[in-house]
Amino acid sequence: MLAIIGGRGLTELANLKITHRQVMRTPFGEPSCAFLFGTLNEHEVIFLARHGYGYTIPPHLVNYRANLWALREQGVNEVISVTTVGGIRGDLTPGLLVVPDQVIDYTHGRDCTFFNSRNTSYKNIDFTQPYDAVMRARILHSARQVQQPCLDGGTYAATQGPRLDSVAEVNRYERDGADMVGMTGMPEAALARELDMAYASIAVVVNYAAGRGDSQFAINMESVNATARSAMVRVRTILERVCTD
Ligand code: HPA
């Protein structure tokens, strides 16, 4: 069973035929909102709006553990996360879609593991390749099939937010090897791995990161939202195809 976790610009999936919605509870609290169960191109999927339907939950307050735990409980073993990012690398311009292959975690204070007790056994998950290779290939293949350009690979810097970055911070991420910056990629990817779910991400570049391109002095949130909205039309086309392949 496939789940899609949507972010900015994707709080609903217009092409999803909804069969029912359900409020979930977990030992870690409640997910961001009710799960939408439905079909995309005749394939069963669950859709979850990461920030809630009203887009009210900031990235550092998303209950990532509850989201993934509840999905797992519903039999989900594949997750496609849709996130928005600022482009650091020169060719990552607003509107571009990327399927990242690496991550650097700059977040702090988030509940980043299910192994949070001194009294139960734990495992050190392998995170050499943080995103599932098969799921990445599936997304890229589907994007080609529907003729939507989608870049293969890139390093995602996960920052704490909810504020955007300073120029010096973006310069540091770049020195560290990051190509794009967003706020929700972690701990989501690691938690999915802890639950043995195949997880990959479609990152939508919605702005130049601070100090890059036209973001020398400020990032225009109106244009961020407009870029996100229009890019999500293309993301939906890819997701529909992923379900068919
Ligand atoms: N920085 C951090 N997170 C983001 C950005 C950004 O520029 N754009 C979208 N999410």
From TrEMBL:
It comes from Gallionella capsiferriformans (strain ES-2). The record marks 221 as: Important for substrate specificity. Its EC number is 2.4.2.1. The keyword Glycosyltransferase applies. GO terms for biological process: L-methionine salvage from methylthioadenosine; purine ribonucleoside salvage. The keyword Glycosyltransferase applies. Belongs to the PNP/MTAP phosphorylase family. MTAP subfamily. It holds the Pfam family PNP_UDP_1. GO terms for molecular function: S-methyl-5-thioadenosine phosphorylase activity. PANTHER family: S-METHYL-5'-THIOADENOSINE PHOSPHORYLASE. SUPFAM superfamilies: Purine and uridine phosphorylases (SSF53167). Although this enzyme belongs to the family of MTA phosphorylases based on sequence homology, it lacks several conserved amino acids in the substrate binding pocket that confer specificity towards MTA. Substrate binds at residues 183, 207-209. This is Purine nucleoside phosphorylase. NCBIfam families: PRK09136.1. Signal peptide: none annotated. InterPro entries: MTAP (IPR010044), Nucleoside_phosphorylase_d (IPR000845), Nucleoside_phosphorylase_sf (IPR035994). Homohexamer. Dimer of a homotrimer.
